[in-house]
Every structure is written in C-alpha cells, then in structure tokens.
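Researcher: We plan to redesign the surface later, but first we want a full-length starting point. Tokens attached.
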C-alpha cells in the first residue's frame, strides 16, 4: 500500500510514504569544502559551496582533474592571486560528483540493506536459520485462509487462465518494546496477470486521510476521550469476490493427491486488483447497518451518537483501526460488535499508528507523536 521510498539526507534514514509531492524546480545539492592554498603552498582559508551539475560535469575542452602547481609561480600570477584569484589544491582525487541518480541509488541500496534479512522466496524461508518462525507464520496464514473459506479446490478449467501466487515474508515490530519482533507470512496473488473485464472491473478504494487522523488525535487530547486500537487480521480476506478467479495452490501447501487441482477463489486475496475495493465495500456495509454515519469529507471516518448523547468515532487505515469515545463502555460495545463480524486483534489503548508512537498526558490534556512515521 505504500508507494515511495525516499532518502532523507538530513535525517539519514529511509521514509516510506504513499503521498509524495515532487518539487521539479528544486534539487538537493550537498555542500563540500574546498581548500584554498597560496602560491607558497600554505593553507589560507576554506570555502563552502554547493556542487551543481555544471560544476560536477567537466566542460568541453576541460580536464576532469584540477591542475597542480609544481613550479614557481610568476609575478603576474602572484598579482592575480592578490586580486582574489586562487587555485584549489590537488590531493590526487577527482572532484566529488553529486546528482539525482546517485541519491536514488544510495536510497535504494540502504532500503535493500534494511530488508535483506527477510527471505524473498518460499525456498529461502524454509532453509534459512529462522525457518521455524517462518514456517509457523505460514501455518498461521493458511489457517486463517481455511477458516475464512477463501477458496475451494476444483479441477482446472480448460478455458480459464490460472493466476499464480507467492509468499511474502516480513518482520514487524511489536506495538510495545516488550513484544519483540513478529514474523508475518502473507500469501499474495500475482494480480498483474489478471485480465480487465474478465478477472476484475472496478478497483478503486478510498483510504482515510492523514489529516483526519491528526484531527481525531487532537479531539482526543482536547476532549479527554478514550482512544483504543484494533487490528483487522487478514483484512482483505473478508471481501466477497464477484468474479470467477482461479489460482494455483501455494508453495508448500499442495493437497496430497490433488496436486493438479486449482483454487477457485471465493473471497478476495492480497494481491488481487479488486481486493481493497471489496474489503472497503464489506466494511462500509456493516458500519451502515450498525447505524453509523460516514463522513462526507472522508469515507473512512464513521461516527455515531452513543446512549449518553456523546459521540463515538472510528477511523480505519486499511487494517489499522482507531476508536474514540467519551466512555470506555461505548468503545467496548463497538469492539465486541466488530469482533463478532471480523477477526480482530484488540490492541488496547492506542500506542502506535502508521509507524508513529502515541504518548498521552491526560492530566494536561496533551498528546504527543514520535517523529518517526507517515503522518
């Protein structure tokens, strides 16, 4: 769901975000230091300047290496130095070059190094040193798929294209430091092989605005509301498919005696083009049935009046959910209703959303967010 990996030179870290604004008129130019030497070889001063593309690329007829003073300087040259003209010393290295391509390559290299400890294929996952954890994670994923009746095994139809699938592995930090690292394995359909008009039609799905999340957090702090967090387990699997889609059986979990059979999908699956839309339609329909009103300005913000005339709010970012209300009993009532309809994980008081940690000082009606995150 995240679209861009951006390298922040000032913070020395990679930021992942869906919403990025590109400034075509501005380019980052790092600052380098040039050492100015006199004709006698002594260092006079250091000058900082920005390296531009014009400076980094040699002009026609110019050498890529700066010239070196090896002989005595004539009096005319000494006079020109007195007027402010000087030469840079040559330390035996070519001038540093900075450009957009270099920054992108460096950011991708850093991101690759960060993710290098996660297996990229099923074979790698079952043969690495952490194979026990990854096999258990795949077992949990398959249990959820079977419990949700995501597909049924059928003989391969002759007139239909069979899409393939793959395992995606990810290590995820716990909500609190005491939880440690969680191993997540997700079965993803290769949706790029789907054919429009046959395997899918509409794919658009709204996503809650980051501004709406900030507004809700501000209301929670000012009105001293209860703020609870839920996580929807395998959110996309709850969507009902409207098309007939056939998928190959996942690696490592082929049914014995039915290796030639394929999966006739009944529920949406991660990777399918229509999965986000089907999940949204399912969740929106249920919230309207409960009597909640959808915000006309943000379709993933719901609110309703509680029994004591106070309001209860819910915002959903794919599978991360925040519930805010004046009384804990109202929050718990909604959590029970949602857990009865969907497979949920109750995370208790909100501590982390979209990579940002939440700190509250309820005595002073203040709420703080860590700098790390996407909102």
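Model: Full-length starting sequence:
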């Amino acid at each position: 769901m995240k679209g861009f990996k951006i390298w922040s030179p000032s913070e020395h870290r990679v930021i992942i975000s869906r919403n990025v604004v590109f400034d075509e008129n501005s380019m980052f130019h790092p600052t380098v230091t040039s050492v100015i030497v006199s004709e006698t070889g002594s260092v006079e001063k250091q000058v900082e300047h920005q390296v531009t593309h014009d400076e980094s690329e040699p002009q026609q007829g110019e050498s890529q290496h700066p010239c070196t003073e090896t002989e005595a300087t004539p009096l005319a040259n000494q006079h020109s130095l007195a007027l402010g003209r000087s030469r840079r010393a040559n330390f035996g290295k070519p001038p540093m070059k900075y450009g957009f391509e270099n920054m992108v390559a460096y950011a991708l290299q850093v991101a690759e190094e960060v993710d290098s400890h996660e297996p990229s294929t099923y074979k790698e996952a079952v043969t690495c040193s952490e194979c026990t954890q990854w096999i258990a994670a795949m077992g949990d994923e398959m249990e959820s798929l079977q419990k949700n009746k995501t597909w049924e095994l059928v003989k391969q139809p002759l007139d239909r294209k069979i899409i393939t699938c793959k395992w995606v592995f990810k290590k995820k930090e716990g909500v609190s430091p005491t939880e440690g690292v969680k191993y997540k394995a997700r079965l993803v359909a290769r949706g790029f092989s789907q054919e429009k008009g046959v395997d899918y039609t509409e794919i658009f799905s709204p996503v809650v605005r980051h501004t709406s999340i900030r507004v809700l957090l501000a209301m929670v702090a000012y009105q001293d509301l209860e703020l609870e967090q839920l996580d929807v387990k395998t959110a996309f699997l709850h969507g009902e498919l409207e098309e007939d889609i056939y998928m190959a059986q996942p690696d490592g979990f082929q049914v014995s005696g039915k290796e030639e059979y394929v999966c006739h999908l009944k529920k949406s699956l991660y990777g399918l083009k229509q999965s986000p839309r089907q999940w949204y339609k399912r969740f929106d329909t249920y919230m309207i049935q409960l009597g909640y009103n959808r915000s006309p300005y943000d379709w993933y913000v719901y609110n309703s009046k509680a029994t004591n005339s106070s309001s209860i709010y819910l915002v959903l970012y794919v599978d991360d959910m925040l519930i805010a209300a004046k009384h804990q009993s109202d929050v718990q009532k909604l959590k029970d209703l949602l857990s009865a309809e969907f497979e949920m994980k109750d995370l208790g008081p909100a501590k982390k959303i979209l990579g940002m940690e939440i700190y509250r000082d309820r005595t002073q009606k203040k709420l703080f967010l860590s700098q790390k995150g996407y909102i």
